[in-house]
Design goal:
This protein is mainly beta. It contains one helix and four strands; from the N terminus they run H-E-E-E-E. The chain has a four-stranded antiparallel sheet with strand order 1-2-3-4, with no helix packed on it.
Length: 84
């Protein structure tokens, strides 16, 4: 498994940052992603960040599914591809 880690400082309220990290919003700022759609049930905004949340991602060069293995708005989160 490949591990990617990067840190940056963002001058914005945490709520705004977390809003952009939702799986259905990442295509707005990730160059390779064309679209992403939740495959898990999302009834409330908090459901987007819960452990087990999943989405189907379409990239410029393929498609894959993601799921959340660890989620916290105050700590690091972890996403994994379903095929890994």
């Amino acid at each position: 498994m490949v591990r990617v880690e990067k840190s940056i400082e963002i001058r914005a309220p945490p709520e705004r940052v977390w809003e952009m990290l939702a799986l259905d919003r990442q295509a707005e700022w990730m160059d390779e992603w064309k679209s992403s759609e939740y495959t898990s049930e999302v009834r409330t905004p908090e459901d987007k960040y819960r452990v087990g949340a999943s989405a189907h991602v379409t990239e410029k060069h393929g498609e894959f599914d993601l799921r959340s293995r660890r989620a916290s708005k105050t700590r690091r989160s972890r996403l994994v591809r379903n095929d890994q």
